[in-house]
Design a protein that fits this description.
56% helix; mainly alpha; 4 helices; globular
Length: 106
């Protein structure tokens, strides 16, 4: 059976339905038996849903690079502080879970 760490690494592919049949079934089995991983995958799916609803231009390449660096460091359990705060969506409203309206980007 897959470990929790392996499931977190495969979660994106699982949500995109890109994992091969064997790995996909292993992820489903693990999720059936592991409430914390089910919650993680649910939160990841919700995050992807909300990000897809964001309107406006993508972050500039420098900001995107800083974000990717921070995410990769966090994934390796070696969080590194950003050199300066990010303000991707400074005045974004808190979206309602039932609302299908896009989130404006300031």
């Amino acid at each position: 059976m897959l470990t929790c760490r392996e499931v977190t690494e495969l979660a994106g592919d699982h949500l995109d339905r890109e994992s091969c049949t064997g790995a996909g079934l292993q992820v489903q089995l693990h999720l059936a038996l592991c409430p914390p991983c089910r919650l993680f995958v649910h939160q990841l799916a919700r995050t992807v849903e909300l990000v897809r609803r964001v309107e406006g231009p993508a972050p500039d390449p420098e900001t995107e690079g800083r974000l990717l660096k921070a995410f990769r460091a966090a994934a390796e359990c070696q969080p590194q502080p950003l050199s300066e705060p990010l303000s991707v969506m400074p005045d974004a409203p808190d979206p309602s879970p039932s609302s299908g309206t896009p989130i404006p980007r300031g």
